[in-house]
Amino acid sequence: MHIHLYVPVLFSLVLGQCSLFTCQLYEYHFINQNKTWDEAQKYCREKYTDLASVYEETDINRLQTASKQDKEAWIGLYSESVTNTTEWEWHWSQAREKYTENQTNWEDGEPDNAAGSEYCVIMKASANKWWDTSCTPTRPFICYNGKNIFEKQKNWLQARRYCRDKHTDLVSGKTQLEDQQLTSKLQEGPDYWIGLFRVTWRWSDGRSSFFRPWNLIFSDSQPDNKTLILINENKTWEEAINHCRENYKDLISITDAEQQRWVQERAKDASSSHIWLALRFTCILEAWFWVTDERVDYKNWASQVKTDDCNMSGAMETGGEHKWYKEDDMMKFNFFCSKF
């Protein structure tokens, strides 16, 4: 069963209904014909590329411009109804933490999606076990910033936004959750939100995007997309990272293929051959690392990187295959700053 996201402007869920729709071929094309979502997808794939994908909030404005009228239209976002819990895609809020089945602490029988919309996870204080549950109730939560920080009640999305703004993120990963200080305090407290959630949304073209209709899932008024700001100024790596930290949060890091694809889409608007990444080489360890503290598990180097010079940082080409290159820190490129 597919649940299709209806209209680019007003998010509504509609099944089995004919509607207008919007195709994409490097630009949006409004099709003034009424079709079901499946018919619209087939039409776009035959005539263009696919149903429209949305990668950032400004794309919503582009969709409105393409439609040239105040009408609702299909886009390529849909949610698969998965009954087999082993097929769920669980993610930690901290991108550097990777969810694996052998690093879990679920209560027996969990996750079970008993209510049909249990996308978030709490830690049961009485047993230090995990339970999947609806994301909308307000609960206490645990932020992490090198140590565990207990906070008062918010829903899951509000809790994550608060932790990212005030600290680092919601507590994530089995290692952080098994910290002795945390487990001893949990015995005395209620059930807490932790940074584990599942993703069901997909784009028709097979790609993923950080821009998803979280308000439909979490009943929160703002979508939780990892917003990037393109700085169309050429700066050295140090100037770039200082600019981001003074005005936003940090230089961008890319920790998986999904983030890579999303940054590629945005990089087409850059005015330089490359954009700086928060990727730095350390001569002491003879290794690359993200200055934003994520692990370097995902790599997209153009070739085998051999680095003898300590003053080197990572940059992604804005065209071609969007590979990563080692560049001298004094080179000047555009760059992305992350807001969250």
In short:
Helix content is 21%, strand content 33%. The protein is an alpha+beta fold.
Protein described:
- The protein has 340 residues and is α+β, with helices and mostly antiparallel strands.
- It contains eight helices and 21 strands.
- It is globular and about 60 Å long.
- Helix content is 21%, strand content 33%.
- The strands form four sheets. Strands 1, 2, 3, 4, 5, 6 and 14 form a seven-stranded mixed β-sheet that branches. Strands 15, 16, 17, 18, 19, 20 and 21 form a seven-stranded mixed β-sheet that branches.
- The chain folds into three domains: 2-81 and 201-218, no CATH class; 85-199, no CATH class; 228-338, Mannose-Binding Protein A, Chain A, CATH 3.10.100.10.
- Keywords: Disulfide bond, Signal.
- Residues 28-144, 143-226, 223-338 form the C-type lectin domain.
- Pfam families: Lectin_C.
- It comes from Sparus aurata (Gilthead sea bream).
Helix content: 10-25%
Main beta sheet: strand number and arrangement?
7 strands, mixed
Q: Tell me the distance between the termini.
A: 34 Å
Kindly state the number of beta strands: 21
Count of helical segments?
Answer: 8
Tell me the overall shape: globular
Strand content bin:
25-35%
Which stretches are low in confidence, meaning pLDDT under 50 for 5 or more residues running? 1-16, 212-225
State the domain count.
Answer: 3
Order of helices and strands: EEEEHEHEEEEEEHEHHEEHEHEHEEEEE
Radius of gyration: 22 Å
Mean pLDDT, nearest integer?
A: 79
Structural class: alpha+beta
Signal peptide: 1-16
Organism: Sparus aurata
InterPro entries: C-type_lectin-like (IPR001304), C-type_lectin-like/link_sf (IPR016186), C-type_lectin_CS (IPR018378), CTDL_fold (IPR016187)
Keywords: Disulfide bond, Signal
